[in-house]
Specification:
alpha/beta, single chain, 310 residues, 14 helices, Rossmann fold
Length: 310
């Protein structure tokens, strides 16, 4: 059986680390408790069985490492069972494709990187509270189209509560049926294009529709919007968007300096003993498709310069 892999966004770690407060409303209590519960449950599952891989994208790891030193230390501690997904050029290009196709808002470049990282490394689940950019049903069909065009599998995007209430039972069931001894690569490149064991248990609807739990389906529009508003107005999400906007601005302002700084940071983390996941080889068809995309962007930029000079 291929390993089952779960990636966590920075906001899941942020809510899990945030202490409960008397002023927390019902939605905020749910965000914190659900985030803490899913991390606790999957970490216990990792300790008790084989075949489950927990990861966090380098972009999200960078985010949780920023800010107040004590809080950052506590957040990093919550990722002790996770491997970091290093950002490589193929991930940057896939994220650029998402942005170029208008899947993400102009200020959501780091969200595109987080999704691209999960896609490139063949991650099964991406757990996040970002319902504006990632767990976004209107944008999902475009995400699916681009991911499949690139020859990759589509990760399941879900919130912490959905993962706990629905997907974790499926994961436990699949792990109980198989005992895996190999703790090497996240997935086997030879079976990269085949349907993974865990996904074979689901229908097409479960694979490609974001909100498929009864709790969400039974909520009316006002209840859904109230939950989304609570998430968007929370301190964790506001701080997350501030950090991501800052990084996006640094990337746009001086791309070469940004890449150099990120490379230096990655080397620093590796020297400190942060565990990074093995980088999978890029399949030939992905290289070809990304080359076509680069040529398309170059032609578009040339056309812009020509029109501007004219």
């Amino acid at each position: 059986m291929n390993k089952i892999s779960i990636a966590f966004d920075a906001n899941i770690i942020g809510y899990a680390e945030a202490a409960p407060r008397e002023l927390d409303n019902e939605e905020m209590e749910m965000l914190k408790s659900s985030s803490h519960k899913i991390l606790k449950d999957v970490q216990e599952l990792v300790q008790s069985t084989q075949g489950l891989k927990l990861v966090i994208s380098e972009t999200a790891y960078d985010e949780i490492s920023d800010g107040n030193k004590e809080n950052a230390k506590n957040r990093i501690k919550l990722t002790q069972d996770m491997e970091v997904l290093e950002v490589v050029p193929e991930i940057e290009e896939l994220a650029g494709l998402f942005m170029d196709e208008g899947v993400f808002r102009p200020k959501a470049g780091n969200d595109a990187l987080i999704l691209a990282s999960a896609v490139f490394y063949g991650i099964d689940y991406l757990v996040t509270w970002n319902m504006k950019d990632l767990v976004n049903e209107p944008n999902m069909q475009d995400m699916i189209r681009i991911i499949l065009q690139q020859g990759h599998e589509v990760p399941i995007l879900c919130t912490a509560k959905q993962c706990s209430n629905y997907y974790l039972a499926l994961i436990r069931h699949e792990l109980s049926k198989h005992q895996v001894q190999d703790k090497g690569m996240l997935y086997n490149i030879d079976t990269m294009k085949s349907t993974k064991a865990i996904k074979s248990m689901k229908t097409t609807k479960h694979k490609y529709v974001l909100f498929n739990t009864e709790s969400w389906d039974n909520m009316d529009k006002k209840e859904k919007q109230r939950l989304i508003d609570a998430i968007e107005s929370s301190e964790v999400m506001i701080e997350s968007r501030r950090w991501r906007a800052k990084k996006d601005e640094e990337r746009r302002k001086d791309p070469e300096k940004y890449r150099a700084d990120q490379t230096a940071l990655t080397k620093k983390w590796k020297a400190e003993g942060v565990k990074f996941a093995p980088i999978p080889p890029t399949p030939p068809w992905v290289k070809t498709l990304l080359k076509v995309h680069r040529e398309k962007l170059a032609a578009r930029e040339a056309a812009k310069k020509k029109n501007f000079s004219a």
